[in-house]
């Protein structure tokens, strides 16, 4: 009787084991052409794969060496519990883990580059715009990765589709890396080689003036009732103009305020007196600016630089949104830099226009406050300045602990009195002297 019960349990678990153990492996870019994943607008999966591949090095032994740490939350990576048994069981629960990235509908995804998120912001309401995910399996030999996977949700669902789940081989990652390093237009070259359906982008290549008579003509392969233009009762005819190439962005002024930038705004929008607007993370309109006839330019606002700021193109009365830019990332889309010799890292970010720093301390580094007792972080208005020419500083042990939301790391932060500005930098010193620098952040971008 006991044996029959065990056999019954075995056969009940067998389908789950087969799903997780028999994941197809893709070995070349050509293999990507034969699958559904991320192949048509507004899917973002292929862009996501290109982006993450840019942060991976594959050595001659097929070892995957990342420049990012999924456990730290870089680029919006978060712990993936694998409840659906989509992937093989972990051999070491304490030192391995699955981490997913690609959910653009969350503030943790703001660090993803605009070419990954553009289709999401151009197609509000589209059920395909946020389906794709990339998952990595971390290795006991940190910070190496053991495997990279791509997968997707069922359309309109939070459940994952095991039949559209694949493992990305080191050979494929190396091939993508070759494209990235050898082509200036590596994104376009990769999408073309992977068989991305360029025609599916035709419909949302176009911007439309509101309040026009509704007509539908041939609009490529995109589902019409899910398109932005149809929701706005737009005209699809000879008056369309390209909008996919429009650039909207937020950068920093020399004094910690938001600098708005725009480019490639088509004449059809300028003709209807389109407005440039800045919104905060709560969706409030902070300012509006008439572009007149300026298809490109910058504008220095009086709004402090903060996480989640977003530029939009609005109709003259503000009732219609034509195009939405990416959300601003408070860390300037830079991952933290490791503190040499320690399981800890440093990140420069901004809050209310001031230069701030985060310390990521591994939870296994239990006596960090003793090891870093004399350590301090210096803030520099220019990364070329000597170490003793800091604007201000703070000791590491005086940083404030943030909410305990990260599984692997404790996060501590400090808000300095230095206005964030292009070229600003934070440095971590182990002792009170100026010569023992263990970490330097990338200079803040202009």
Automatic annotation (TrEMBL):
What is the name of the gene encoding this protein?
A: LOC110486287
Superkingdom of this protein's organism: Eukaryota
Q: What protein does this entry describe?
A: Uncharacterized protein
* Organism of origin: Oncorhynchus mykiss (Rainbow trout)
Give the UniProt keywords, A-Z: Signal
Tell me the first and last residues of the signal peptide: 1-21
